[in-house]
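Tokenised fold entry reproduced for everyone:
>
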Amino acid sequence: MNNMTDIIADADEAVNIQLRPVDRENWRKCVDLSVSGAQEHFVAENWYSLLEWKFGDDLFPYCIYAGEDMVGFLMYGLDTDTRRWGLWRFMIDVNHQGKGYGNSALAQLIELVRDKLGDISFYTSVDPENEAAIRMYGNAGFEKTGELMWDEEAMKIEL
């Protein structure tokens, strides 16, 4: 894969997922999603992320759907301290992992952010022990910056 278009095409061929904004109809199901016990320390609970969204600014939460089944959650937003846009939360429910949903959702998020914000640097942070996430972000075009954000390794992609 040489560019983001190839990544998105491959992700779209692998699985058909949609990003839908969190709303009054789906938030409860979103809160019920969970990761495996071994992954719990890598990601905040979805209820906490939704509270951040409701009481914060410039945060955009989305549920990840495969057909009509909710399979994950993500949230991107603006860090008011650094003025950087980034992926704040990303999880695929334990019952839906290993099906390509994460790769496809990440590719769609990158396109969504590019469409809304244009050519920007887009960041995320990842626990150094979370090898699967580091690999997924790397495959999508994120590169480590050498910085620490919230005791995690910072990664960014140029959109």
